[in-house]
Known about the structure:
With about 550 residues, this protein is α+β, with helices and mostly antiparallel strands.
Amino acid sequence: MAPTNKPAKSKGGASPNRPDSAVDPAQVAGLLEESRQYLATIFATVHDGILVIDAATHTIVDANPRAVELIGCPKGKIIGAECHKFVCSADIGNCPITDLGQTVDCSKRTLLKANGEVIPITKTVASITLHGRLHLVEIFLDISGLERTEESLKESEERYRDLFENANDLIQSVDPKGHFIYVNRAWKETMGYTDKEIARLSIFDIIAPTCQDHCLTIFQRVMSGEKIQRVDVQFVAKDGRIVDLEGSVNCNFVDGKPVATRNIFRDITERKLVEKEREAWNRTLEKKVEEKTRHLKEAQAKLIQSEKMAALSEVISGASHELNNPLAGILGAIQLLRRSALSKPIEPALMDEIDVLENIESAATRCQKIVEDLIRFSTQSRCFFTQVDINEVLRDTMDAMMEQFTQAATTVNWQSNPALPRIEGDFVKLFEVFANVFQNAASAMPDGGNIEITTRLLKAYAKPQQLVVTIRDTGCGIPANNLGKIFDPFFTTKPVGKGPGLGLTVSYGIVKKHHGDIEVKSTVGKGTKVTITLPLRQPSS
Ligand SMILES: Nc1ncnc2c1ncn2[C@@H]1O[C@H](COP(=O)(O)OP(=O)(O)OP(=O)(O)O)[C@@H](O)[C@H]1O
Ligand SMILES: [Mg+2]
């Protein structure tokens, strides 16, 4: 049965000039037919299912093609059937409209299909009276597709949420005002804030003060549409820890307006720490290498020095031996000549010759002294070792120098150490070494200064104990280019005739004969440090 309704007004309608009583029945019939066709077309083609149900008997009196399709059985079986069999799953006597008085207006309900399947629908029910009886018009829309879409949307949302929540990287989304829209689990764990605290925070509350300006610029650039692939930033965690992060930032736009920035950060605090440690370690290594290189250079310089000195010693040994004999001869001859000259009455004419003789004698004596010094440095010189108290040697040397020190207002800092063991050494020769070192210090401080002497025992790994005497002065110092030459025979910076430049040469020879070492370090304008290292015992051979 096709539903009848009030006739719809056609566009033309009844003529306004003609009274109702004068309506043309044929025209009315035409309008009615037009209206019926209009409704029938809608009924037949609408995508919603439409059922017309007798309200008293709950019998389905009409169903449109879409309703038939959705119910899933021929129209013949639907018409005349009770709606509880299809459409509505409510029990007889429990009809939501007629029994329970509910209004159904686009409500989410279910449709019971002929095969027993239940599908989700939205339903609207309207009441109309047809042929004097109350009828219900049920209009329903299959929303199972929509629900499936919603379901898969939910699932995909769930998947993404799970992915974000379980990511190890810190993920955050921030609104244009800087408030947090979303942060993931790793973010909360790293930063230590609760959901409540996060809700009150602004991104700028957690950016480290040193990064604020840099981050504000980035934020503005991202909000204006720029994608930033690499950002380095420092956040401050709730407990004050600085968290180093690196990551990417971009912004989500809706209708051209920025709605949220999205950031994925990796916590690189640990990596930065390791990098810092590695850098510190590299610096330490570099220092060690530098130190080792310096030690190697020093050792090399020492080796060159000792090889040079050994070679010099050989040469000087031979030369001094060759010079010593003729010098002794010259001096002997001079003494003979003087004795014979003095045995006769001295004529005034001979006085000049005696003067010349005396000059020759003093020059020869000076030469002999030099030759003796050279011999003391050279391999020929011998040491006579006894048990020596180094405190005593130092005291005697200082006593001998005291007058000179007092005159130049030079102070000496030294405390003899009674705990020092005696060493095997040549007292006289060691006296000579210290005398020369003190003499050099005094010459370097003509206007006074300070000399500091320290003594100590040194125990190096796998080596016998040694005694170390350090003499430090506050004199003029030695220029670096002279340091390599100070042990060379005849190297001197003293004026001609003041010193032959043999003091350190002889000292070097003596210390080496004690199987010890002498080392000089100096800074121009600050002073010089001479370190003499002596073994406690001499090798038995
Ligand atoms: N403590 C020092 N301060 C500054 N320069 C020094 C010091 N010790 C040595 N020198 C330098 O080393 C040079 C050589 O010293 P060395 O003792 O061998 O000879 P000298 O003192 O010049 O002469 P000599 O000792 O034969 O009288 C000195 O001339 C001086 O330039
Ligand atoms: Mg000297």
